């Protein structure tokens, strides 16, 4: 039966591919193996230098992270000028410069349904000190044309050959380089955006929202751009009353695609749902306790979409600033950040509910979905906000102070009152405040980088060393995943604690991971007591592309909270456009085959390398399935998450202005079983 299911799956997938909007025929993925990094468990590890400061960052392939800075006087050069983009190789901990061409200062980004990443907007041409130059074409010394109207595209690669392509919005129609489908881009509209946000929509296109003409700490009516439009373009910008009503805090509105197909949008104290087709805006309740959007910059995240909650979206907001005076004539840097956390489930209820407050006030934090469903809260500051400038009260140039060095964990599965902890988490030695970023990696580590509350870099020694099937469709037949005795810790009963999750790690910037999403696939199991193996029967993605927009994502199998190494899978057709959906295939009921029954051992026959080599095998050379065989250290070390730190530009001015630098010693290393462990190797 197992084999027959697979045959029918392959044929269904092939048929769908022929319709151009169904999933492509999946190929079999290479085994991801064990995490290649080793080290002391218990904290942070400084792994390398990102060359440019990671104001914006995303995982483009399993091995390559792409980083964007703003145009500034970085030491690494490209094409005769300082670089403000780089690629970081996770396997080698090396980086290469890339050429982003125009000024990427405070741009936004996301991944499209065909796997192409876009980076949109930016700031004017600048020279030393971040000062604007009159000539929009830039020229020396930075050679950084105005990026305000830029659309940059990148098709991530692993061979060092890819680079950003600036699609000039004001020229004749251009074709986006696209390794998948060659989507032609219609006439591009003149965008006048400095700060934008995006979310990938259910057809794999992107929405580009808001912004301003010149930048600044907050927006103002003289430069506001209260519109949104789509990429690829579907016509002229559409004016949003929500954006124009919420000056000055309408930059980087916190935006999430909901399973209903509407968008939750939050800025200043207001909340709406936007129907991107009819352009109608629906008012929801005001945001309690704090301003959450930039520059208050609260942590924000869609909680896991799971079979248990019927893939219903709940958005979590934590921290920010309970301030309404956005003038800069008072000491913003000392104003305490909020501890408040609230949730909203906008497709069901227009009101917020209070959630457990954070362990300390925090602004500019990143909330990162982990494969076990918990959320890592990292980076940020206890006082002040995002932004920088030369004020009498600013810390160096920073508008924030008192960095929070210790991460925390939020567990949505725990009862109210007990969701926050930091059991087993050590402190970092490196502040991560404005323009820092954090993303989940395939091996369960979290990459943390950036932090640069300065207008420019002074050249000199100031850069501190700081630190299964390949495709899934929307509905269709279930598929099987094999777990061997090692995966199950020698006990087939653990099959009941196995989940299969898809995480889109997102585009990280300004305390947001744009497009980040956690979706648990429905699954059941057949467990075999005779040899302690099991088969997981796993559904495809629910037949609603608004639950998880098309495009690449990571897939993890998690047993008792221990994740596999993630593999990259394409969700949907691999092209931009309407996605095919079909009814979800039925799953067999979970069952436990006792040792005295016949039929045990089937799973092990499907297994990968059951020998001495501790590797997980995903995929099988003779069949279209995923087999997972893995010896894990999890029986002794429950979790092996790492936080990796890449280069961090910091506070060169800052440390002289305020000597908090040396006062943050790393806390003692711990090795606590059944806790989330971070490694420190410094
Ligand atoms: Cu910024």
UniProtKB/TrEMBL annotation:
Do you know which Pfam families this protein is assigned to?
Glyoxal_oxid_N, GO-like_E_set
Domain Glyoxal oxidase N-terminal span(s) in chain numbering: 200-456
Residues covered by region (Disordered): 595-617
State the signal peptide span: 1-18
Q: Which CDD domains match?
A: E_set_GO_C (cd02851)
Q: Does the keyword Hydrolase apply?
A: no
Domain Galactose oxidase-like Early set: start-end pairs:
471-571
Q: Which UniProt keywords apply?
A: Signal
Q: Which PANTHER family match?
A: LOW QUALITY PROTEIN: ALDEHYDE OXIDASE GLOX-LIKE, SECRETED PROTEIN-RELATED
Name of protein: Copper radical oxidase
Question: Which organism does this sequence originate in?
Answer: Mycena venus
Q: Please spell out the taxonomic lineage of the organism that makes this protein.
A: Eukaryota, Fungi, Dikarya, Basidiomycota, Agaricomycotina
